[in-house]
Amino acid sequence: MIKRLAGCVREYKKQTFLAPLLVILECAVDILIPTLMAALIDKGIDVGDMANIWKYGLLMLLCVLTGIALGIAGGRISAVASAGFAKNLRHDIFYRVQTFSFANIDKFSTGSIVTRLTTDVSRVQMAFMMTIRMAVRSPFNLIFALIMALRIHVGLALIFLAAIPLLGFGLGIISVKVHPHFRRAFEVYDRMNTVVQEDLRGIRVVKSFVREEYEESKFNKVAGEMYNAFCKAEKLLALNSPIMQTAMYSCTLLVAWFGARIIVGSGSADLTTGELTSLISYATQVLMSLMMLSMVFVMIIMSRASMQRVYEILIEESDLQNGENPVTEVPDGSVRFENVSFSYAKDENRLCLFDVDLDIRSGETIGILGGTGSSKSTLVQLIPRLYDTTLGRVLVGGKDVREYDMAALRDQVAMVLQKNDLFSGTVKENLRWGNENATDEELIHACELAQADGFIREFPDGYDTYIEQGGSNVSGGQKQRLCIARALLKKPKILILDDSTSAVDTQTDAMIRKAFREYIPDTTKFIIAQRVASVEDADRILILDNGHVDAFDTPEALLASNAIYREIYYSQVKGGRSDG
Predict the structure, then answer these.
(1) DSSP bridge partners of 368
(2) What pLDDT is attached to residue 533?
(3) Is the pTM of this model over 0.90?
């Protein structure tokens, strides 16, 4: 895990190595100050030598200024290194998420991925900064201070050494106990993000059904769970401070007590006043180093759960991969399903599509009808390989979709979903998702085909009108038509409309289908619909029933032979009256 995360340092290696070096130099300079103070007392103040007072005083000032300069430089460089590390880490996570299949995203959930990209990365960044500064400063300061203390008086210096294993034992127990609590806390954090996202995205529904109190209670519940989880963790971490302070003050008192007895008993032969003063300073530095180490330790404990969560994203492999030497050209829009069965759980005992066998010629218009849950959307999502089949195979242009480069395949398959998203930006910017190099004339033509040009021109800024996040400032029908225009700009060999004209009136729907027949006759079109009128002029209609193919034939043949199609047809077209 550490090796993978450390790989995100990349171009900031120089700063990452330079920051600890400056910290070490800062420690070396700081460690001289108590020794110079001892000399100032013993060789200057005690004997009344002003020359030595000035000499050692100026040396101490020089050390202080040098330490400050090194500290500032080290702080700036470590900030650059940690910010760069976090930038690369977020880049790698986001890049990895872009490779995920729908199954991978379902595994983590949207809220969890957002939390890992934001809160978890911030915690890892803080731990990284503390590692290259405090985690370097503390041990070096501790070692330097112990060496100087041992030079002054071995017996008194051993007091510090005795405290170290006791502190290490206490911190080890805290680490083991607190980590599971932080792990649970971040899992609750994911759930809270999901609740907030759902509430904000569905705020109109919440308000229209007057469900504010219900949403508040749901949020308060998950926020309370997070509060309890963090409280349990923080209560254990709070033990760190009294343990450290007890050790720090006990050692200082013991050094002062035994040092004073040595000075009084030996008449300053074994220990001078200045040396005792510097020894107490070194005692303080040793214990402050231990205190800083404990702070680093606490931060690493807190960030350990975040590291694991970030690492899980970085090592997650998409269950959809390009094969060796993938095909990059899709010859035509023909589609064949050969004994296809599918399960989201990849379990042959939990299938939602069963033994689908279809042969669609390039340029055909295929209507798809079926009840809710009949796997209409699941079927068409296998064509651009958003999922892989559990059994059987799907062929596009005569080749198994698994033989294609996924980007090349999906570039030739345009999908328009019922709940397709628009993104924040202008109308033009949203349309150019279909073709980033499209001219203004091509944009207008695609919108004319999708019956979107008229309402766009009614906007104050026309094609430069700003679309809010999710397309919240346009109606459902307008959003669907913009998404259809966006798909047409791809000039795909296969166009899939997944109930994507449900929010437009029947006349507009008919005009869109007429444009498809006249302007993209060679494009294979799959039209999933709830209205018979949307598919009545299709070449053939597929009837799905609970994941099974019930019928696949022309509209006329189905009307004569298929009970499901007749029921839908007469209920919609004939107002429920059968003339047969």
Answers:
(1) 528, 542
(2) 86
(3) no
